[in-house]
Amino acid sequence: MFDIIKNKELASAAREKGFDVLVLDEDIAVVSADRDSELRKKIANERKSGKIVAVLGSDDEINRLALRLGIDFLLSPEIARRKDFFDYRNSGLNQVLCKESAENNIAVAFNFSDILKLDNEEKALRLGRMMQNVRLCRKFHVPMILATFASSESELRTPKELVSFGISIGMTRADAEKALNHIGKIISRQK
């Protein structure tokens, strides 16, 4: 099982909890941009360095472009500030993005440590958006990634705790366990 962390210093603590560890900025490049041309350049540069490339969730146009450019995963599409609609949450994913993601085998990543840092109202909103994204990912067979993205030792969790978090946002136990291991498939695909 894999976990993604932000600091290299946390690697030994994460390994003690039972994870193989990937470090942001060392093994994985998270890219974000406001314009198409800027995003294209950043993704191309990171691809040359041999890192796993992720794009931080943004508006629909940026997310769609990222999926077309062949990134490895879309990180937290629910994070962008947007107003919800009357009958559903504006969660950063829709059926068009999910179909494209499934066709290109691009995963959607759920960030556990972001939830820990939010106040109760924002936490409820973000969890609702994550739940909707899980439903969309399951419906359209989009691969999912579940990781802590921890920046401190207090944000680290065991694999069982992450599986429980996955179940609480709508994954089955099998989906959650698969989401913990999906980054390993991306690594083997890159080699």
Describe it for me?
Helix content is 47%, strand content 15%. It has 8 helices and 7 strands. α7 packs across α8. The chain has a single domain, classed as Alpha-Beta Barrel (TIM Barrel), CATH 3.20.20. β1, α1 and β2 (20-23) form a beta-alpha-beta unit. It has a 5-stranded parallel beta sheet with strand order 3-4-5-6-7. Strands 1-2 form a two-stranded parallel sheet. It is of the alpha/beta class. The model has no long low-confidence stretch (mean pLDDT 91).
Please give the structural blueprint:
Layout: E1 2-5, H1 11-16, E2 20-23, E3 28-31, H2 36-48, E4 52-56, H3 60-68, E5 73-75, H4 95-103, E6 107-111, H5 112-116, H6 120-139, E7 144-147, H7 159-168, H8 173-190
Parallel strand pairs: 1-2, 3-4, 4-5, 5-6, 6-7
Helix pairs in contact: 7-8
Oligomer: single chain
Structural class: alpha/beta
Radius of gyration from the alpha-carbon trace, in angstroms:
16 Å
CATH superfamily: Metal-dependent hydrolases
Give the termini distance in whole angstroms: 18 Å
Helix and strand sequence: EHEEHEHEHEHHEHH
What percent of residues are in strands? 15-25%
Shape: globular
Q: What would the CATH topology be? A: TIM Barrel
Q: Catalogue the unreliable spans.
A: none
Q: What percent of residues adopt helix (DSSP H or I)? A: 40-55%
What keywords describe this structure?
alpha/beta, TIM Barrel, two-stranded parallel sheet, 8 helices, globular
In short:
It is built from eight helices and seven strands. It is of the alpha/beta class. It has a single domain, classed as Metal-dependent hydrolases (TIM Barrel), CATH 3.20.20.140.
